[in-house]
Amino acid sequence: MLSIYIFIFIVPVFIYIYKVEKTNPFEYLKLTKNSLKGILIGTIVSLMLIGLLIIKNILIGSFHMNFNIGILWISGMLVGFLEEIPVRGFLLQKLDSKYSFWTANLITTFIFTSLHIPTWINSGTNILQSSITTAMVSLAFGYLFKEYKSLWVTIICHSVFNLCIWIGL
């Protein structure tokens, strides 16, 4: 499944950027400039999210974390790369070159959220609640990407966010 995703989403993005945009895909995707700053900001935002989720769970009396999530630990680390490269690294930047940032971010958020719906249907997840949460997070990720000019911010935040959900935070 991982290799299919890489060949359907990641490889075409890299080929398009290299052949059509005629630039280094890593630079275009904002993976080279501001890397340390992006990693630092991503880590800080992620730690703040973890803190808020812990406080929320303490306040509502629901603190049942499951660290035994098996291979999801690896998936959690990879999902940031696999979803952020085509969505914010590529799509958001392409749309931002044609529309205002917030219009581009809204379109990207709609597409990003829609892509998750089949998984939610398959797993019996509350689609409305998950759509709202995912849309809010996606808008925030888009803003962080624009603000800090580094895809590392969203890669780290996205991975940590998913891990928090999977362990029950």
From TrEMBL:
Stated name of the protein: CPBP family intramembrane metalloprotease
Pfam family, one: Rce1-like
Regions that span the bilayer: 6-24, 36-55, 67-87, 99-121, 127-144
GO molecular function: metallopeptidase activity
Keyword terms, alphabetized: Hydrolase, Membrane, Metalloprotease, Protease, Transmembrane, Transmembrane helix
PANTHER family according to UniProt: MEMBRANE-ASSOCIATED PROTEASE-RELATED, PROTEASE
Organism from which the protein derives: Clostridium cibarium
Annotated CAAX prenyl protease 2/Lysostaphin resistance protein A-like domain residues: 69-163
